[in-house]
Please model this.
Amino acid sequence: MGYILVLPEYGLVADPMIGLVTTMGASYTPVIERVDKLDLIADDIVNMLAGDGNFLASFPGRDTCLLYAGGVTSMWYGLAVGFFIAGIIAFGFL
Model:
């Protein structure tokens, strides 16, 4: 991989593979690859809020699994909160 000297007195070169000005000998390519991977993960987390679609860590054919799992989880949380409120009302009248 070749570099283009920008300011040799400061050790700055242009990396034509990624289009950035960097210090000589150091390349930001591994960092940019990790940022791209994290960007895919962040998009996957945000898309999980919708509950449909394929995700990075899911098997093919499980497009609506988050939708059903969210419904079941909401049902159990609603049941627990409902029993808690019913218990407060029932023991409040005793």
